[in-house]
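Technical annex, item 7. During the second reporting period the consortium partners agreed on a shared format for inverse folding records so that results from different sites could be compared directly. Each record opens with the tokenized structure and is followed by the designed sequence. A conforming record, contributed by the partner at site C, is shown below for reference.
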């Protein structure tokens, strides 16, 4: 069955004030030639170290329906399907703006120091219980990712959910004006990307830029437990946001957590949402998931969706790879066979998210012979306080009874040195050096959580542990091991 056209050539040309070459219709939009699939409109963007125009021929060879360019690269056939614009970044932004204008979808924007992506995915699941919903893919939340995500939104969906991220002040405001959220969620404000800010108050102000694209009919949903709640409320009111709701454990929260029971792989939640009792099961462990689920139910109410349906959907949440996914690995060591549980938190890390991850790991019943093992890479962009913030993780390791901690990176050396000797696994300069050491140390029954900032490349360790399962199967069948997968963009 053929996918419906997302961008007929004439409509794309009108949206961008571009020149259409050939007759074509695109079913998707891509800015990465490596991930182009048949039917995509490939947008040849320029960056500090690349020029997408160099990959136009590759995109066409992969079946791209057309390519958006601001110059026709040498060697591209004269009859190639093109959309020629003055500037490709402006062209992508124009597509995104037109997609927002042509759609009647109600739109949610999500930002915050941690929990953006998981909250976005939970929102998509919750809203889909009422009507078709679309959400940005992965963490496409920056100056390229947000317009790309908006340009991909089908015209007929009822709800759109977009993650908006930043590293510096001034980055969220233009994205908010583009997305124009009807509802905005700020999950929390923490000392993440602190190297680029003079204070955490500055981070709060940067997150509040999400209100710049909102108006009097819109709703802000804020964490009532945050010390920055009054500051965020003031920003919302200054921008003319019409309604402000809150979530958390605070007695005055509009979505208030009454009680929760945290289990190894799920949580039972008892809450009051705008005066109505709500009891539901959340199929993701951890108090941070519980609190963010309250914001999801509030957003569902603000969007006119069913709270009951949204609450039921929380039982179907599946943590994403890199953000809490659980992987069972069959392991054989010295004649002993069993399972190793891997918790993949490799995508990102900050002091607050590592503390939450250690709490989840501490709640795992590893059995009589298993160990709770944390594998931690550097938390980046923390500024001059980085060494102290890494060493301070010791208290969370001890409080959650983590048996062993393996670390890598110069800052995590501070934690390694601070830990009691019996809790130290090993330390290495980087994830590539630590991976084989860890692979030799794990045994059946262990539970291993892997976490670190994206630049620490902790996915290398996840892959190494997963390959223990593959290697055992290959040895059993007396075949050669499969080539190691190459991880891009870690």
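Designed sequence (site C submission):
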């Amino acid at each position: 069955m053929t996918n419906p056209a997302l961008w007929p050539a004439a409509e794309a040309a009108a949206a961008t004030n571009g020149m259409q070459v050939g007759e074509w219709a695109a079913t998707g939009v891509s800015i990465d030639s490596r991930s182009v699939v048949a039917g995509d409109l490939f947008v040849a963007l320029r960056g500090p170290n690349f020029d997408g125009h160099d990959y136009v021929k590759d995109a066409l060879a992969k079946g791209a329906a057309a390519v958006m360019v601001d110059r026709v690269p040498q060697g591209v056939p004269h009859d190639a399907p093109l959309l020629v614009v003055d500037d490709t970044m402006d062209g992508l932004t124009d597509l995104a703006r037109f997609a927002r204008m042509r759609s009647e979808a109600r739109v949610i924007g999500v930002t915050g120091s941690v929990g953006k992506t998981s909250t976005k995915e939970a929102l998509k699941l919750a809203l889909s219980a009422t009507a078709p919903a679309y959400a940005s893919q992965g963490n496409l939340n920056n100056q390229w990712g947000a317009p790309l995500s908006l340009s991909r939104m089908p015209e007929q969906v009822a709800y759109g959910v977009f993650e908006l991220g930043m590293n510096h002040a001034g980055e969220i405001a233009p994205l908010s004006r583009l997305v124009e959220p009807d509802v905005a969620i700020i999950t929390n404000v923490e000392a993440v990307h602190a190297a680029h800010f003079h204070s955490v108050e500055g981070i709060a102000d940067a997150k509040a830029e999400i209100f710049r694209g909102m108006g009097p009919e819109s709703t802000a949903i804020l964490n009532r437990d945050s010390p920055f709640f009054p500051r965020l409320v003031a920003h919302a009111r200054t921008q003319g946001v019409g309604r402000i709701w809150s979530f958390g454990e605070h007695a005055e929260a509009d979505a208030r957590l009454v009680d929760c029971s945290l289990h190894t792989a799920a949580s039972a939640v008892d809450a009051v949402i705008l005066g109505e009792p709500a009891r539901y099961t959340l199929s993701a462990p951890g108090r941070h998931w519980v609190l963010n689920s309250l914001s999801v139910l509030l957003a569902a109410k603000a969007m006119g969706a069913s709270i009951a349906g949204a609450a039921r959907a929380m039982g179907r949440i599946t943590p994403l790879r890199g953000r809490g996914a659980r992987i069972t690995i069959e392991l054989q060591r010295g004649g002993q066979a069993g399972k190793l549980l891997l918790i993949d938190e490799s995508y990102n890390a900050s002091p607050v998210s590592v503390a939450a991850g250690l709490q989840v790991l501490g709640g795992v019943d590893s059995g009589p012979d298993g160990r709770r093992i944390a594998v931690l890479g550097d938390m980046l962009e923390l500024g001059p306080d980085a060494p102290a913030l890494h060493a301070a993780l010791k208290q969370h390791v001890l409080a959650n009874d983590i048996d062993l901690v393996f670390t890598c990176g110069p800052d995590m050396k501070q934690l390694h040195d601070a830990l009691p000797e019996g809790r130290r696994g090993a330390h290495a300069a980087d994830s590539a050096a630590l991976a084989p050491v860890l692979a030799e140390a794990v045994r059946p029954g262990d539970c291993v959580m892997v976490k670190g900032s994206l630049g620490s490349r902790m996915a290398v360790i996840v892959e190494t542990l997963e390959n223990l399962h593959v290697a055992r199967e290959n040895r059993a069948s007396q075949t050669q091991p499969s080539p190691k997968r190459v991880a891009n963009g870690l």
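DSSP finds 16 helices and 24 strands in the chain. The mean pLDDT is 92. All partners now use this format for quarterly exchanges.
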